[in-house]
Each structure stands twice: as structure tokens, then as C-alpha cells.
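User: Hey, quick favor. My workstation is busy. Could you predict this chain's structure for me?
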Amino acid sequence: MEDFRFGRELRLLTPSHYSRIFNEPARAANQHFTLLAKRNDLDHPRLGLTIAKKRVKKAVQRNRIKRLARENFRLNRHKLDNIDIVLMVKNGVDELSNEELHTQLTKLWRKINERCQPGYKPKPRPNNWQKNKNTKKASN
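Assistant: No problem, here it is.
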């Protein structure tokens, strides 16, 4: 039977745990979240949360987001490899419903797990992406 607890061993606890991930991480992001991750030497994934007061003003909302992120990680951790993940939020995340948060996080766990696989190569960006980027710079 699978264990669905979110114990101390599943959390990033010290600054050294976080700093290791911030140094050359795999990234996955959407409109409301950014995930940074790196493989670890353990036999389970771990999660760290950084919910900035600058992004989510009210403590009630920060705590709701943390609670839902932990819950979603707890339910999906059996699908993840042994990786350390840091979840960061962007502006507007506090306006999402609980269902939308769960949906977005579930997709991001899958995406970051794929990007942490050995030998993963990102898909090349379309040629028009670079042209659009250069056009914007030239027009400014």
C-alpha cells in the first residue's frame, strides 16, 4: 500500500538544500508558477515552497497556496522521480480557484519530472520566436 503522508523527509529544510537547486536547475513554468528542480541522491522527491509576500499580499492567501501545493505534491509524488523541487509563484496566483491550482500544479509536476530525466533535450523553439523577440527590441 502506498504511503501518502507528507513527512519531514519530503521537504527541503535548509538553505543549502535550496541553494543547490538554484544553481543550474531544470525549469518548468506557466502563467502562475515556476518550478525549479534538480535530481537528488535519495529515493524520493522533495518539495520546497517560496511564496513571496511581494507576489501574494495576504497571509491567508499565501497559506492557502502552500497548503494546496503540499496536498497536490503529496498526491502526485508517487509519479515523480527522485528530484528536489522548488515552487515559486507569480503575480495573480491568489485569484485562482482551488481546482485551477490543482490542475496547473498537476501539469507542472509532470513537465518538471520529464525535464529532469537524464539525457533530456529541450525542444527547439520555433524560428519565428527569435524574430519576434528581436523585432520587439528594435522597436523600443
